Amino acid sequence: MSAPIDWSGLQTHWRRRACRLAGAAPALDPASAYALVRRAAEPFRAGTRFLALPDVRFYVDGGWMRAPGDLLPGADDADAAGYVARVRARLDGRGFQLRVTQPLFLDYALWAQAREALAGLFERFGQPSLALTAELWLGEADAGTLGPRFEPAAASLRLPLLGGSEVRCWRARPRAGGAPARVLRAVAGEALYWPEAGWVEEADLGPTLGLAVSVPVGGEAAAVAVKDVLAELVDAELGEQAQVAMLDFPPRGRAAIAPLQQVAAQMRAAVAGGDLQRALRASWAARASAAGLEPVPAPREEPLAPADRVGLDRRSPLLRLADGEREWWAVNGHAFSMPVHPRVDALLQALQGGAPATVAQLCAGPRRRVDPGLLALLQRLHDLRAIQRERVPA
Question: CB–CB of 5/27 below 8 Å?
């Protein structure tokens, strides 16, 4: 539904300076985005939830209110503007901002809209190898609501859906009364960008609902991501032996650190044997198919029937990576591996055809029997929303 942001204006600014980017329509449907904010906030009305996604935080007077209660949107707050007006009245006119971190996986349609909005950006600068942080924000904040912020290793995007956004940029930590180096404003349908390693103050231009995206660009984050993948490989290999080692004290020669040497040996084997490289390629393929938007929506569970007509959903990028006698597939942030099948290319060509074909036609093997490999692949692609179905009534 969204018209893309004109990312061409970012070409000379990327990782150098802040800028405003033109656009023709909001990146996400505002009504659906507000409904998602309200859905995510509902359990937080009863108290703070720790280590939960989505995470919901309410900011006022330069700080985070730990238990905002009914200052969060509820069933009686029909729309974003009405909610902002209610809370402003409760706060005696003070500015506030509600931030919901990583909510998009709860709504596939909104998640797909966000991926479409960001597609042009990553076509120009490359697909992110690390996950983005996406937030929906809602409120009417002034510069003091959040206070000055510093992001050392991530570029920032602000895409207002309703209202507008203002950012004040400094090269060093702002001083009281000091003028910013740059002030930028964007209204709904436009976007703001600023690079990492700068100080900013953000404010809303009236009641505002928007999408905030952080794109990791620092090398430290990449090192942590590779370490995490390697740790998962080692844990999977060691199994029940993957426990915290209790070492002799005082140490008694090399044998004292044998448990740690075992872990180190598994790490070396994962690197030298290619397991780490394969795991990184698979994770990158999954991330690229999602434009870095993680977590990703869960697969659907709808078994296909032989008479169902199906075709590719062209909104969902489908990636394939060869891996010897197997092949990695990635779609909508999910990756899976399967043996190379001689009829896969013909299946994809049929799915890309003008008229949808039935499951029975697409999976017909020799003597008109169903090819179980193709049927399993087709079902997996449907579960991951790579194909659309037109169910034929019985």
Answer: yes
Q: DSSP letters along 337-387, please?
A: EEE--TTHHHHHHHHTSSS-EEHHHHTB-GGG-B-HHHHHHHHHHHHTTSE
DSSP character at residue 263: H
Q: What gap in Å lies between CA 376 and CA 359, rounded to an integer? A: 11
224: tokens are 């942590």
Q: Retrieve residue 349's tokens.
A: 């060509």
* Per-residue pLDDT reduced to its tens digit, 194-203: 999 899 999 9
Listed in sequence order, the residues at least 6 apart from 33 whose beta carbon sits closer than 8 Å to its beta carbon are: 110, 136, 161, 209, 211
In the structure encoding, which two tokens stand for residue 308, read together?
Answer: 């169902």
Q: Is 95 helix (H, G, I), strand (E, B) or coil?
A: coil
Whole-number Cα distances in Å, 53 to 56, 72, 251, 360: 8, 16, 43, 40
What contacts 184, CB < 8 A, 6 or more positions away?
18, 19, 20, 166, 167, 169, 192, 194
Instruction: Indicate whether 30 pLDDT > 90.
Output: yes
Pairwise CA distance, residues 371 & 363, whole Å: 5
> CA 212, CA 102: separation in Å to the nearest integer?
10
| CB of 114 closer than 8 Å to CB of 5 | no
Region 354-362: what's the mean pLDDT? 89
How many CB atoms are located within 10 Å of the residue 259 CB? 15
Contacts of 50 (CB under 8 A, 6+ apart): none
Q: What share of the chain is helix, strand, coil (3-state, %, to 5)?
A: 35, 25, 40
Least confident of 3-12, 77-86, 131-140, 239-248: 239-248
Q: What angle do CA 186, 188, 190 make, to 5 degrees?
A: 50
C-alpha–C-alpha distance, residues 132 and 382, integer Å: 25
The owner of tokens 């702002």 is: 174
pLDDT category of residue 249 using cuts at 50, 70 and 90: confident
- pTM comes to 0.91
Distance CA 238, CA 275 (A): 14
